Amino acid sequence: xxxxxxxxxxxxxxxxxxxxxxxxxxxxxxxxxxxxxxxxxxxxxxxxxxxxxxxxxxxxxxxxxxxxxxxxxxxxxx
Length: 78
What we know:
Shape: elongated
Oligomer: single chain
Helix content: 25-40%
């Protein structure tokens, strides 16, 4: 490899490593289970996580987005 080619390759690799990694969209049930497991691990009790359409969130606290951004996961204490 020539020196200019090597420098260009190194610069391209460095640029790619600085780009944010885009998360793949998750199904709501999978994300809900992951969040519930984390809450249970911390000893949180008496909550409900619900997947709702984006326009149906209301006053609930949004804790995630799923199904390619078409739905939100909401958290409510019971």
